[in-house]
Amino acid sequence: MGFTDICIMIRYERFELKNGLRVLVHQDQSTPMVVMNILYDVGARDEDPSRTGFAHLFEHLMFGGSVNIPDYDEPLQLAGGENNAYTTNDLTNYYCQLPAENMETAFWLESDRMLSLAFSKKSLEVQRKVVCEEFREHYLNKPYGDVWKLMRELAYTTHPYRWMTIGKELKHIEEATLSDVKAFFFKHYTPCNAILVVAGNVDMEEVKRLADKWFGDIPSGERYQRNLPQEPVQQEARRLTVHRDVPLDAFYKCWHMPSRLHKGYYAIDLITDILGGSTSSRLYQVLVKEKMLFSNIECYHFGSIDNGLLTIEGKLVKGVDMAAAEKAVEEILQELKEKPVEEKELQKVQNKTESMMAFEDMSLMNRANSLAFYELLGDASLMNSELNRYQSVTVADIQQYAQQIFDERNSNTLYYLAQKTNP
Amino acid sequence: MSVQHVTSEGIDRSQPPRIKDAVDFQLTLKPYDKYVLDNGVEVYAIHAGAEEVMQVEWVFYAGNWYEEQKGIAMATNHLLKNGTKQRSAFELSEYIDFYGAYLNRSCFHETATISLHTLTKHIAELLPVVREMITDSIFPEQELDIFRQNMKQRLEVNLKKCDFVANRLIDEYLFGYHHPYGTYATAEVYDALNREAIEAYHRDYYLNGRLVLFVAGVLPNDLYQQLNSQFGSLPLRQQLLPERTHPIVAAQEKKYRISNDPNGVQGAIRLARPYITRRHPDYAPMQVLNALFGGFFGSRLMSNIREDKGYTYGIHSYVQNHVSASTLMVSTEAGRDVCEATIGEVWHEMKVLREEPVSADELLLVKNYLIGSVLGDLDGPFHIIARWKNIVLNELPEDYFYHSIDAIKSVTPEKLQELANRYLNPEDFYELIVV
Predict the structure, then answer these.
(1) Rounded to two decimals, what is the model's pTM?
(2) A67 to chain B nearest CA, in Å?
């Protein structure tokens, strides 16, 4: 059964300033707002292994005042705007939204912090503490909070995806110095390492004028040459068992998968939807509903730019043996490798993808954000061919990549067991 | 292309560009279309948007306000998708997933909802399945068993989290464990769930219940006919809900320190007081005071406790709204050694607001921020219908939106100080730390 496709087409214009700043403009006259999104081509993968967590700490410092403007938030709020930012292993992204009439305020604020930060000692001291609290809140004070620290260190021996965005340990953040901060800024936060997207109710010529006025004279900086140590192909299965003070045993297994730009990415993304992600997915139906081995189970990946990890994780029903649970997971993967999926099942996950993209594109912020991300990947127009790529995936592709990825030698298994309390 | 480099000498970067104050913007809330189905069910609709997507929300008066056994409203709502006379849970999920749609259930205190998000082109295929869930759900024993087991397991994990424990306790202090707003699920509550009670609840509060529909997005021309043919003949008894009164039994003791995890590195802090509902004349101007106090990133609490002291990753004050009673809440997770100091700073910020009028600059900033965020929140059809839903379900006047905006724009420093003296007194607050 085929549906007529909706044409989801995000229009934009692209130009570059002399200093190398890439600018993309997306017009949408149905909104009274403007979104400004600045993506810096730096993430946790670019950190020194002995100074992890820095890209993310730095993101916090970006709100501690810039060279000519003591406070970033206040003038933006005064202009009716709001903002946020996030750091991943791959990139750092800043975005703000404000009424279109006040667009220039965003240019003023963002260009000043690209020009130079204030590098205030007090800001560093406070944000170090804030980030340490963030670390504690999300990774130490939560049951299962250290899973990804353990799993990344198990699955990666070499590539900097070995550590989490928040950092390997609190100590690295506590020891950050102002000179580290400065060096990091002038290396990465430069026009030639940034992508600026302006989206919303804007006039194209006005955006060009303002981009040049505010960003045009910022020194270009040096283009950062990323030369990360590549992860060698894993040759044999790795396993780790830990005991923690948690109520339930949990199972985590990761397989290496290719990079974001690999042609197999789309098939692999759909494989995760076939296996997990909804109550009609295979893992859920068989392992939660039919065999009642898991109380929940998911399959996902992070969409990493470099070679990433495909993950299956679940919490076991009390009393279920971990090895038996793993065997049941393997049976499902075996079936996917041996037997082609039915066309209808493939179409189901393709339809789900189509619908997810349409919902995502409703938000101006998401559109701006996606444009910046695809530009970072090398070409913003990829955004408009994504759906097509998903829809071109065949039953044979699914089988081929399932066979390739779900190879035991390519796997990393973590048994996260509930500590037995002594009677 | 590359633009000509214009020399930018003469830009004074220390000077902000001129802005239009957000308080000078005229905000409009797109009016809804209203239909009434043959059986009296009201449908509120917003036709808007660029993407060919839509949402439908079925709001039943089937929240825990009406249950006679704890957990029944929540279990009934959740299991609506787990089997009908015609289809198993898997077949229902598979069918909905095949159309790329999302079907969610949510149970609140007064209401319980089914919501559907779909590409507009598939709506005709999906409405009959939702009808089936309302008319023909069978709540298989096996599904209930799995639900019970998995919810108990999830609860066990959550009880390890100080924030989860704190959220339950603070509601209990404010309303009492037997009030719908103060109650929570325990392993015993899950154990006691049974099919008979769920079937009865489904019959009384869904099949024969009271329903209101909200639809938004790019809507098909014949949507009303479709809705009427699927839902216009259900035996819904529109106005006749049983009278239920639930006395509030608030705790006598105001101050609590709970140890949940001897090795915890953070404490969850909750400071809360009984509060006014949306109908109260102070409610709208209080939105400004609340924002200023702890309602946004630039708030007093955030500036002091995160940005100056670094005690926390975030601290917020907000209104926990219910239909018949509300709560004003300050919430944060802070390092276990600085929890008491954090509470001290919260009291201090209340005191400053009671004793000193807010400056004109700060007030303008907060107003602009609030109006700007409303403006930004109005552009999608789903956000617009959410505002109308709030007005309709709380039986607020139709001009509520404009009234609130005017109140935000016009509030004065004197009024805010008066409000702070009325609502921000530590002695009115329950005070809880869970480590």
Answers:
(1) 0.93
(2) 9
